[in-house]
Amino acid sequence: MTNIDYRHSIEAYERAKRVMPGGNTRSSVFENPFPIYVKSGRGAYVRDVDGHDYLDFQNNFTALIHGYAHPETLAALTAAAGQGFSFAHPTTSEIDLAEVLCDRVGYFERIRFMNTGSEAVMMAVKAARAITGRSKIAKFEGAYHGNYDFVEVSFDPVPENWGQDAPEAVPYNIATPRSILDDVVVIPFNDLPGTKQILCDRRSELACVLIDPLPARVGLVPIDPSYLSFLRQFTEQHGILLLSDEVLSFRIGYGGALSRFGVEPDLCVFGKIIGGGLPIGAVAGRAGIMKVFDSSRGKASVSQSGTFTANPLSMAAGAASMSAMTAEVFEQLDDLGEYTRRRLREAIAESGVSAQVTGMGSLFRIMIKEENVLDYRSGFPSNCERDRQRRLIAFVRDNGVILSATGLGALSTPMTTLDIDKMIEIIGRGLQAVDSQVTK
């Protein structure tokens, strides 16, 4: 137990347990023995209810590319709030954000907004089914695509159930219907021979192949270009849609993740950074494919709505935030990302701890792992590795730096090399502390 004074966070957690199951209403922020409760944020820092300040590399799970209280975004949001929070009518604010996004990505001819990344993935899958007339989908083992039964399949399989010769379709939640498992084909990330064999056997049944170019839960390892090229060629050849889930990875390039690989998917699913810190999701693609959502000539093939979809606050904040993310700003943030990963690898080498760093663009992940991480299975932690990772993350938090529980970090535009150096110094001490505890 830490000797840091977290009394107000503990009190808040005790209150939460009286009104929420397990004191929690968002599984991703659950933490034992208690989570820290954040009160405010500005720039690259957040402050908790006990008055402690933290250099925040979590940025609400990568959503805040400008950190906190970004002036242009705050001004746009304040102006929009004064006009009304939401309406049962369209507003020009949704056109503004749509134009900003379509202008920066060549194949974004039409766009459709949702409230979350999970909802966007769900609608993209429905679109693929409507266009192809097929029901089955394929996805990577270990890849996270949100809260939707079909894409949750094999999100977190373990060695006891993940299959030996080929990945098994493993349910994420108890009592997931067998019919859902039967409609999901699980493929091994970056394994071209294995994936080719699996997909060839099911090619006439597949509506789509759902990919993540930089899957965080798989290890934040970039998709192999030859593997991606195969998937693009295979899907085109067999009338299958290629869906790119860039909810997290849209931040690694001015035109999104696949623009860095020179490949155009049929539909791109994205969110997080495009909302300026507010709830949002989106699906975009060529006009011919996106017409599946068109209701101007009667009932659309895929009907999609939502009370708060394209609400003016998310639209205004998103337009301001993304307008500030010019190509030059992306390049600067990418350079800072390269600096971060290089400095982390130096710190690991100096510590002598078996660990590694993955990532791309403004994203990085540090893993206490001896085996080289190439996919979900090679990145799966042993109990010892999981415990050491947990203690490392707790150490850096208690010393004023926040990373996700998995060691994932996301840079924000207010950060400088001085912030990175601060994190490196603390992580270096954390690695030594964790190693000394194991040695003892």
Please describe the structure with a list of short key phrases separated by commas or semicolons.
440 residues; alpha/beta; seven-stranded mixed sheet; 14 strands; 15 helices; four-stranded mixed sheet
Quick description:
This protein is an alpha/beta fold. It contains 15 helices and 14 strands. A hairpin with a 2-residue loop joins strand 11 (356-360) and strand 12 (363-367).
Q: If helices are DSSP runs of H or I spanning 4 or more residues, what is the number of helices? A: 15
Helix content: 25-40%
From the N-terminal CA to the C-terminal CA, the straight-line distance is 18 Å
Q: What is the CA-atom radius of gyration, in angstroms?
A: 22 Å
Strand fraction equals 5-15%
Low-confidence stretches: none
Please summarize the sheet with the most strands: 7 strands, mixed
Task: Provide the succession of SSEs.
Answer: HEEEHHHEHEHHEHEHEEEHHHEEHHEEH
Mean pLDDT: 96
Q: Sum up the overall morphology in one term.
A: globular
Structural class of the secondary elements?
alpha/beta
Number of strands: 14
Spatial order of the strands in the main sheet? 4-10-9-8-7-5-6
